[in-house]
Amino acid sequence: MARVVDHTRECRVEESTWGPDASYVDTDPSLQGIRALFAFRPETAVPMRALAQQLLRGPSPLSSGDRELIATYVSARNRCHFCASSHGGAATALLDGDEMTRRVFAGEDMAVVDKLTALLAVAAAIQRGGQALEPEIVAAARERGVTDIELHDAVLIAAAFSMYNRYVDGLRPHVPDDEGLYAVMGERLASGGYA
Questions:
Q1: CA nearest neighbour of 44 among 31, 34, 33, 55
Q2: Distance CA 169, CA 3 (A)
Q3: Dist. CA 3–CA 26, nearest whole Å
């Protein structure tokens, strides 16, 4: 049986060690995470928000909850606490607190047993690098009914969220210390999207 290639300790999101003055650019301290960076450079925010909206809320055979789950998994694997927590909150809201959300956020090793876990294996490979998506991973996904569009969308979500994660972690805007705020962000993303 194929498995998500995963080393659980490498996937867990660790608490941020950034201090309140750690940002590498002068962002508005009242804004947090990627929102602070979008306010800093609104001209780049427009296409980045549009891409997130299309990937996570646009037409797709995958539910918005499953797409948020893929984004959460990639963010957790990249150790981007802000993105994993906020998108994990959105996935939780969209999937009604689904147990899979908790497992994905924790970076648990999962057997490829259905379409969703096959897509998470695809996302894990893309998170490591585009050429890490081996034919065996795609074959396992195909055996579980993954279509061309679903494969495309999973690959693009994984690639885009690797970029978003590096953007946030690379510039280190202020991020919430209160874990409860991530649930609020997740609810807002679940209901309002990204546009």
A1: 34
A2: 28
A3: 43
The C-alpha atoms of residue 100 and residue 102 are separated, in whole angstroms, by: 5
Rg (CA), the chain: 16
Cα(127)–Cα(158) distance, integer angstroms: 6
Show the domains of the chain with their CATH numbers. 34-192 (1.20.1290.10)
Quote the tokens at residue 141.
Answer: 């996904």
The rounded distance, in Å, linking the Cα atoms of 103 and 26 is 36
Do the Cβ atoms of 142 and 115 come closer than 8 Å? no
- Answer for the pair 71, 161: CB distance below 8 angstroms, yes or no: yes
Give the model confidence (pLDDT) of 129-156 as tens digits.
999 999 999 999 999 999 999 999 999 9
Angstrom CA distances, 126 to 18, 32, 173, stand at: 27, 27, 25
Q: What is the pTM of this model?
A: 0.88
